[in-house]
Amino acid sequence: MARKKTITLQKIADELDLTVHTVSKSLRGLPGMSEETRYEVLKLAQKWGYRTKEQERAYTVEKIPLYPLKSRRFILAIAKEQGYNSNVHPLLLEGLQERFSEFNYQIQTLIIPTDASANFPQWLEQHDVAYADGLFISPMMPANLEQVLLSLPMPKILLNFPPAGVRSDSMIWDVYDAIYQSIAHLYSYGHRKILYVGDIESHRGFRLRWQAFNEAMRNYSLDVNPQQHVIQKHTQQAAWTDDFSSKLLEQQPTAIVCSIEQYVPWIYYACGKLGKSIPQDYSLVTLENSQNSFLPEVTHPILAMKETGYRAADRMLWRLANPDRPFEHTRLQCQFYTGQTVVRIT
User: What's the superkingdom here (predicted)?
Assistant: First the structure.
């Protein structure tokens, strides 16, 4: 990685065919260029290791070394049953790698099998976890494994909503805000009968989504009866389809909020079996994490997963430099994407 003293604003400007003035404003967050141009400037500056004076001052205040002499290795711990069935972890890893590449630090993934829980401390020892400089604990980690990981005597960042009293920093995208924005969007389009779809028990984040739905609905003076929503955990599509279809016919909603990505194709399938379609018969907002080419553009909050990885790396650097400071828990707000699956009720 090039040092700042060998990289100037002029070199960045020449590489991108921009003026020095545009590059300077981009790096300082000032207006006057497209977001695409700003992104390209920031990306190249990060790649080349260029930092503004403001960034250098911030590093100094936070006690983070600008040009560390020591090589570091970090671990992203992922539960095996989740690692191969989710696009969450690649996005988190991408964010972590992007940030750590500025310091030439390594981030490695550690896939933890379910059967490791029998003698988990010994399994961790065999994989040299204790010799890493820091640990990132991914979302949806089984509670028993998460508890052991949180007890390890090393810097840790929990990539999840923290349990009460946890002795670790945490960083996560804000699903509470995402659900709340979803209800606000549907309400602004005239929807008052909204069906919630999603498991509300398996993970802390799932429970928080349901809590957000209830509180958002109450904010708009809309009643919520849990028995009228599809909130039971189903692992088989046939059982889920029966539950969803019966609630759909009984409640006659005008809109659906799907809080779990895997249910999105099931919703389309079940509606098709009933001779219904989206959005002609039901509007749909979902917490889909990625664009699905087999489905139309779904209206959804944009969950800041890659950004969570990047900011988690930032928090790890800060924790290493400030080991005695109080633990902090950060949620990243989402943006909202207005797709093609919500229609206005007139």
Answer: Bacteria
